[in-house]
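Reopening this one. Same input as before:
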Amino acid sequence: MAALIQGIRPGSTVLLEADPAQLSVGTKTLDLTNLYRRVDGLSEAERRREVEEFLAVAFAKAAPAPDTGDFAVIRPRLRPQLVPDEILQQYKMLAHRRFSETLHVVYVLDEPNRYQYVTHEMLAGWQVDPALVETTAVANLAGTSRDAPFQLVLGDGAPLFAMANPGDDFAIARLLVPSYLDEIRRALKADSITLAGPTRNLLLAWPSDSPARRDLAAEATRYMREGPYGRSDELFRFDGRQVRPLNTMERADHGR
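Same output, byte for byte:
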Protein backbone atom coordinates (compact mmCIF):
# COMPACT_ATOMS: atom_id res chain seq x y z
CA MET A 1 0.00 0.00 0.00
CA ALA A 2 2.74 2.47 0.96
CA ALA A 3 4.62 1.78 -2.29
CA LEU A 4 1.46 2.24 -4.34
CA ILE A 5 0.70 5.60 -2.69
CA GLN A 6 4.23 6.83 -3.29
CA GLY A 7 3.88 5.76 -6.92
CA ILE A 8 0.69 7.78 -7.28
CA ARG A 9 1.99 10.67 -5.18
CA PRO A 10 5.78 10.84 -5.59
CA GLY A 11 7.51 12.42 -2.61
CA SER A 12 4.69 11.63 -0.17
CA THR A 13 5.68 10.72 3.39
CA VAL A 14 3.80 7.50 4.16
CA LEU A 15 3.73 6.16 7.72
CA LEU A 16 2.20 2.97 9.07
CA GLU A 17 0.39 3.45 12.39
CA ALA A 18 0.18 0.97 15.24
CA ASP A 19 -3.36 0.20 14.11
CA PRO A 20 -3.10 -1.84 10.85
CA ALA A 21 -6.37 -0.27 9.68
CA GLN A 22 -4.69 3.16 9.54
CA LEU A 23 -2.07 4.67 7.28
CA SER A 24 -0.89 8.27 7.33
CA VAL A 25 0.18 10.40 4.39
CA GLY A 26 1.76 13.61 5.64
CA THR A 27 -0.59 14.88 8.36
CA LYS A 28 -3.60 13.03 6.88
CA THR A 29 -4.73 9.67 8.25
CA LEU A 30 -6.51 7.17 5.99
CA ASP A 31 -8.87 4.56 7.43
CA LEU A 32 -8.32 1.35 5.46
CA THR A 33 -11.04 -0.77 7.12
CA ASN A 34 -13.55 -0.57 4.25
CA LEU A 35 -10.81 -0.87 1.65
CA TYR A 36 -9.62 -4.18 3.09
CA ARG A 37 -13.16 -5.53 2.78
CA ARG A 38 -13.48 -4.33 -0.82
CA VAL A 39 -10.23 -5.90 -2.06
CA ASP A 40 -10.53 -9.22 -0.22
CA GLY A 41 -10.42 -12.03 -2.79
CA LEU A 42 -9.75 -9.80 -5.81
CA SER A 43 -7.06 -10.40 -8.40
CA GLU A 44 -3.95 -8.24 -8.34
CA ALA A 45 -5.21 -6.07 -11.21
CA GLU A 46 -8.67 -5.66 -9.66
CA ARG A 47 -7.12 -4.89 -6.30
CA ARG A 48 -4.95 -2.16 -7.82
CA ARG A 49 -7.97 -0.54 -9.50
CA GLU A 50 -9.90 -0.55 -6.22
CA VAL A 51 -6.94 0.90 -4.32
CA GLU A 52 -6.39 3.63 -6.92
CA GLU A 53 -10.07 4.59 -6.78
CA PHE A 54 -10.02 4.63 -2.99
CA LEU A 55 -6.91 6.83 -2.94
CA ALA A 56 -8.34 9.23 -5.51
CA VAL A 57 -11.39 9.81 -3.28
CA ALA A 58 -9.33 9.93 -0.07
CA PHE A 59 -6.85 12.45 -1.46
CA ALA A 60 -9.67 14.61 -2.80
CA LYS A 61 -11.18 14.71 0.69
CA ALA A 62 -7.76 15.32 2.19
CA ALA A 63 -6.96 18.34 0.03
CA PRO A 64 -5.64 21.26 2.10
CA ALA A 65 -8.43 23.00 3.95
CA PRO A 66 -9.02 26.58 2.81
CA ASP A 67 -8.04 29.61 4.89
CA THR A 68 -5.98 27.72 7.47
CA GLY A 69 -3.81 30.81 7.85
CA ASP A 70 -6.60 32.97 9.30
CA PHE A 71 -7.60 32.09 12.86
CA ALA A 72 -10.89 33.99 12.65
CA VAL A 73 -11.90 31.88 9.64
CA ILE A 74 -10.94 28.46 11.01
CA ARG A 75 -12.09 29.18 14.57
CA PRO A 76 -15.56 27.53 14.21
CA ARG A 77 -13.96 24.33 12.88
CA LEU A 78 -11.53 23.82 15.76
CA ARG A 79 -12.00 20.69 17.86
CA PRO A 80 -9.75 18.94 20.42
CA GLN A 81 -8.62 15.33 20.19
CA LEU A 82 -6.82 13.04 22.64
CA VAL A 83 -4.04 10.89 21.20
CA PRO A 84 -1.52 8.47 22.75
CA ASP A 85 2.24 8.94 22.95
CA GLU A 86 2.94 6.95 19.78
CA ILE A 87 1.02 9.44 17.63
CA LEU A 88 3.21 12.30 18.90
CA GLN A 89 6.32 10.20 18.36
CA GLN A 90 5.34 9.76 14.71
CA TYR A 91 4.11 13.31 14.12
CA LYS A 92 6.32 15.69 16.06
CA MET A 93 4.93 18.64 14.08
CA LEU A 94 1.54 18.50 15.84
CA ALA A 95 0.67 21.24 18.31
CA HIS A 96 -0.12 19.55 21.61
CA ARG A 97 0.00 19.52 25.41
CA ARG A 98 0.13 16.58 27.78
CA PHE A 99 -3.21 15.57 29.26
CA SER A 100 -2.25 12.55 31.37
CA GLU A 101 0.34 9.81 31.70
CA THR A 102 -0.68 8.25 28.38
CA LEU A 103 -2.58 10.93 26.45
CA HIS A 104 -1.98 14.31 24.80
CA VAL A 105 -4.41 17.02 23.72
CA VAL A 106 -4.07 17.91 20.03
CA TYR A 107 -6.26 20.10 17.84
CA VAL A 108 -8.00 19.49 14.53
CA LEU A 109 -9.99 21.40 11.95
CA ASP A 110 -13.20 19.43 11.58
CA GLU A 111 -15.08 19.16 8.29
CA PRO A 112 -17.86 16.83 7.06
CA ASN A 113 -15.58 14.25 5.40
CA ARG A 114 -12.22 14.76 7.09
CA TYR A 115 -10.25 16.60 9.69
CA GLN A 116 -6.84 18.18 9.58
CA TYR A 117 -4.40 18.25 12.48
CA VAL A 118 -3.16 21.62 13.72
CA THR A 119 0.64 21.88 13.48
CA HIS A 120 3.15 24.06 15.32
CA GLU A 121 3.58 26.01 12.08
CA MET A 122 -0.15 26.72 11.81
CA LEU A 123 -0.29 27.76 15.46
CA ALA A 124 2.63 30.15 15.01
CA GLY A 125 1.00 31.64 11.93
CA TRP A 126 -2.21 32.44 13.81
CA GLN A 127 -0.26 34.49 16.37
CA VAL A 128 -2.71 33.69 19.16
CA ASP A 129 -2.25 32.29 22.65
CA PRO A 130 -2.28 28.45 22.48
CA ALA A 131 -4.64 28.54 25.49
CA LEU A 132 -7.18 30.36 23.31
CA VAL A 133 -6.91 27.62 20.68
CA GLU A 134 -7.72 24.96 23.25
CA THR A 135 -10.47 26.98 24.93
CA THR A 136 -12.09 27.55 21.53
CA ALA A 137 -11.71 23.92 20.46
CA VAL A 138 -13.26 22.59 23.69
CA ALA A 139 -16.10 25.12 23.58
CA ASN A 140 -16.89 24.08 20.00
CA LEU A 141 -16.93 20.41 21.00
CA ALA A 142 -19.11 21.20 24.00
CA GLY A 143 -21.59 22.81 21.62
CA THR A 144 -21.84 19.67 19.48
CA SER A 145 -21.96 17.47 22.59
CA ARG A 146 -25.40 18.68 23.67
CA ASP A 147 -26.95 16.21 21.25
CA ALA A 148 -24.29 13.49 21.49
CA PRO A 149 -26.00 10.31 22.69
CA PHE A 150 -24.79 7.72 25.17
CA GLN A 151 -26.24 4.35 26.09
CA LEU A 152 -27.02 3.24 29.63
CA VAL A 153 -26.71 -0.44 30.49
CA LEU A 154 -29.08 -1.46 33.29
CA GLY A 155 -29.11 -4.30 35.79
CA ASP A 156 -32.17 -4.98 37.95
CA GLY A 157 -33.48 -1.61 36.84
CA ALA A 158 -30.40 0.29 38.05
CA PRO A 159 -27.74 1.87 35.77
CA LEU A 160 -24.55 -0.22 35.67
CA PHE A 161 -22.42 1.66 33.16
CA ALA A 162 -22.63 3.97 30.15
CA MET A 163 -21.15 3.73 26.66
CA ALA A 164 -20.78 6.79 24.43
CA ASN A 165 -20.12 6.22 20.73
CA PRO A 166 -21.78 9.16 18.97
CA GLY A 167 -20.18 8.29 15.63
CA ASP A 168 -18.43 11.63 15.15
CA ASP A 169 -14.85 10.52 16.02
CA PHE A 170 -14.78 12.66 19.19
CA ALA A 171 -15.92 10.22 21.89
CA ILE A 172 -12.68 10.17 23.90
CA ALA A 173 -12.19 13.92 23.34
CA ARG A 174 -15.28 14.48 25.48
CA LEU A 175 -13.12 13.78 28.52
CA LEU A 176 -12.40 17.50 28.01
CA VAL A 177 -16.10 18.48 28.21
CA PRO A 178 -17.29 18.53 31.86
CA SER A 179 -20.89 19.39 30.95
CA TYR A 180 -21.18 16.20 28.88
CA LEU A 181 -19.54 14.08 31.58
CA ASP A 182 -21.93 15.53 34.13
CA GLU A 183 -24.88 14.36 32.03
CA ILE A 184 -23.45 10.85 32.16
CA ARG A 185 -22.75 11.12 35.90
CA ARG A 186 -26.32 12.15 36.64
CA ALA A 187 -27.69 9.38 34.42
CA LEU A 188 -25.60 6.88 36.40
CA LYS A 189 -26.95 8.38 39.64
CA ALA A 190 -23.45 8.56 41.11
CA ASP A 191 -21.52 11.15 43.09
CA SER A 192 -18.40 10.29 41.07
CA ILE A 193 -17.76 8.15 38.01
CA THR A 194 -14.78 6.32 36.56
CA LEU A 195 -14.09 6.93 32.87
CA ALA A 196 -11.99 5.33 30.16
CA GLY A 197 -11.46 6.20 26.50
CA PRO A 198 -10.04 2.96 25.10
CA THR A 199 -10.58 3.98 21.47
CA ARG A 200 -11.10 7.25 19.64
CA ASN A 201 -14.77 6.42 19.18
CA LEU A 202 -15.67 4.96 22.57
CA LEU A 203 -16.05 6.46 26.03
CA LEU A 204 -16.93 4.20 28.98
CA ALA A 205 -18.22 5.34 32.38
CA TRP A 206 -19.42 3.64 35.55
CA PRO A 207 -20.04 4.58 39.21
CA SER A 208 -16.68 4.73 40.97
CA ASP A 209 -17.88 2.30 43.63
CA SER A 210 -19.52 -0.10 41.16
CA PRO A 211 -19.27 -3.77 42.20
CA ALA A 212 -18.29 -4.46 38.56
CA ARG A 213 -15.49 -1.86 38.48
CA ARG A 214 -12.68 -4.40 38.06
CA ASP A 215 -14.47 -6.19 35.24
CA LEU A 216 -15.23 -2.87 33.54
CA ALA A 217 -11.61 -1.74 33.85
CA ALA A 218 -10.55 -5.03 32.23
CA GLU A 219 -13.07 -4.43 29.43
CA ALA A 220 -11.50 -1.03 28.77
CA THR A 221 -8.15 -2.74 28.22
CA ARG A 222 -9.74 -5.27 25.86
CA TYR A 223 -11.41 -2.55 23.80
CA MET A 224 -8.13 -0.64 23.55
CA ARG A 225 -6.21 -3.69 22.32
CA GLU A 226 -8.85 -4.75 19.80
CA GLY A 227 -9.39 -1.24 18.39
CA PRO A 228 -9.75 0.21 15.88
CA TYR A 229 -8.20 3.57 16.76
CA GLY A 230 -6.89 2.32 20.09
CA ARG A 231 -6.10 5.14 22.51
CA SER A 232 -5.60 4.28 26.21
CA ASP A 233 -6.93 2.09 29.02
CA GLU A 234 -5.97 4.73 31.59
CA LEU A 235 -8.75 5.38 34.10
CA PHE A 236 -10.06 8.80 35.14
CA ARG A 237 -12.39 10.09 37.82
CA PHE A 238 -15.02 12.80 37.47
CA ASP A 239 -16.90 14.19 40.48
CA GLY A 240 -18.98 16.85 38.74
CA ARG A 241 -16.19 19.41 38.74
CA GLN A 242 -12.99 18.10 37.17
CA VAL A 243 -11.46 15.08 35.48
CA ARG A 244 -8.30 13.57 36.94
CA PRO A 245 -6.42 10.27 36.56
CA LEU A 246 -7.04 7.68 39.25
CA ASN A 247 -4.46 7.69 42.02
CA THR A 248 -2.49 4.60 43.05
CA MET A 249 -5.05 3.39 45.60
CA GLU A 250 -7.96 3.94 43.22
CA ARG A 251 -6.19 2.05 40.45
CA ALA A 252 -5.57 -0.85 42.81
CA ASP A 253 -9.26 -0.77 43.71
CA HIS A 254 -9.96 -1.28 39.99
CA GLY A 255 -7.54 -4.21 39.73
CA ARG A 256 -4.68 -2.21 38.23
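So the earlier flakiness isn't reproducible anymore. For the record, The chain is about 35% helix and 25% strand.
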